[in-house]
Amino acid sequence: MTDRDIYADSSRRARRRPRGGFCFALLRTVRITGDPGGEIGPYLDRLETLRKSGQNVVIDGPCLSACTMVLGVIPRDHLCVTARARLGFHAAWRPDEVGRQVVSPDGTDLLMNVYPQQIRDWIAGRGGLSPRLMFLTGSELASMYPACKHDRNEAAAGASGAERFLFRPFTSSFASGRGRGRKPLQQ
Fold first, then answer.
1. Of the N and C termini of the chain, which has fewer Cβ atoms inside 10 Å?
2. How confident is the model at residue 29 (pLDDT cuts 50, 70, 90)?
3. Cα separation of 26 and 162, whole Å?
4. Mutual orientation of helices 105-114 and 40-53 as an angle, nearest 10°?
């Protein structure tokens, strides 16, 4: 993981974080502003670390693919969404022998087991997870998750003590899973 993997800025300047760990304790509120997703295993590990930290999580932009597991890992009373939140779901995949993306039934089952029942029902009502992204946004999302109290603008976010935060995958290569003792599964 490099220093580019996690960004935080506020009235304080972003601090360099120690290698190999997260500085969730420095943040009062974790704000997801544009997360493209990545490997399931590393995401679950990081989300579990975040859950144990007791931090609140604001979804304030695109949260795609593996990022959506935040809904099943972070307690509902520590999670809120803004009008900019956009959740994108699809089936898990893995690379085949030549590197093409193929659906991973085991990975997709794991995702569905992580999601809360309300999200599983929403996905099932749209035909289930497939290789194509399906989006949960707007009033439909707002009917399922609480709106953030300080969703006025960036100034309000700074005034509330929330810091800008970008939750990003460990690597830019979704197919890397070396050294983790796991088959790489992506969502």
1. N
2. confident
3. 11
4. 20
